[in-house]
Amino acid sequence: MAPHDDGIEVAEETMVAEAEKRPIVTIVIVIAMQTEALPLVNKFKLSENHDPVFPKGVPWVRYHGIYKDLNINIIWPGKDSVLGVDCVGTVPASLVTYASIQALQPDLIINAGTAGGFKAKGACIGDVFVACDVAFHDRRIPIPVFDLYGICARRTFSTPNMLKELKLKVGKLSTGDSLDMSPHDEASITANDATLKDMEGAAVAYVADLLSVPAIFIKAVTDIVDDDKPTAEEFLQNLVAVTAALDQAVTQVVDFISGKCISEL
């Protein structure tokens, strides 16, 4: 069996190498909130797609169009059918990422959105970062090995040429399902050495890694977690203005990607 297994491994490596040399054609941009998504929908002149790409009954929304030479898909998890609020958090993010990969077969995923930042790590309101590492901070499983599984720390897809060209900041991202920060979360975020805190990134990273799709994480800082201002109040106050900074950064990234292969990022 060993030679057969070796042959499969070599074939898979060859397929990956060939994929990295093909021009990027299809991009999926996963965005949690409509406020964050619509400026980019308008920027790229996308239209809401009503084809049954996703299962019947889900609130997920796909905006689609051609921008330059790229097939752009912005996927927004939609609004909760009962409460009418954006479907934020790791569960919707995981589901739409999985469904989008299965349905659209993207060459690249971009998870774009807002995040909290830590001034102790140099983050300021309106800063835009590319995440170099992602991890969870609220999956506490104090059993050997399961603890590492809970944190699920991983490096993100490396984009050295993009970072050099666009001069974007780089920082580690920690993900959890709460907007506030409990003492337990704070200790875990510190252990993750995170500059940023969000509610989707590590979930998108998990699915992208599982299905072997490169993923980039672009996060704009709406609130400073380690100051004395209420997080929710600061987030809402800065959301619209910071979304403009996010819009600009994502556009620059997409412009940079246009005409390139995965290996050139």
Question: What's the count of strands?
Answer: 10
Major beta sheet summary: 5 strands, mixed, barrel
Quickly count the helices: 8
**How is the largest sheet built, in terms of strand order?**
5-9-8-6-10
| Outline type | globular
Residue share in helices? 25-40%
* Alpha-beta content class: alpha/beta
Order of helices and strands: HEHEEEHEEHEHEHEHEH
Relative strand content: 15-25%
Radius of gyration, in angstroms, nearest whole number: 18 Å
Tally of discrete structural domains: 1
Second-tier CATH architecture? 3-Layer(aba) Sandwich
Let me know the CATH homologous superfamily: Nucleoside phosphorylase domain
Poorly predicted residue ranges: none
The fold-level CATH name is Rossmann fold
What's the quaternary structure here? single chain
Quote the average pLDDT: 92
Q: What distance lies between the first and last C-alpha atoms, to the nearest angstrom?
A: 37 Å
CATH top level? Alpha Beta
Protein architecture, described:
- There is one protein chain.
- By secondary structure, this protein is an alpha/beta fold.
- The chain is about 40% helix and about 25% strand.
- It has helices spanning about 1-20, 35-45, 90-105, 145-150, 160-165, 185-190, 200-210, 230-255, and strands at about 25-30, 45-50, 60-65, 70-75, 110-115, 130-135, 155, 170-175, 195-200, 215-225.
- It has a five-stranded mixed barrel with strand order 5-9-8-6-10.
- α3 (about 90-105) runs parallel beside α7 (about 200-210).
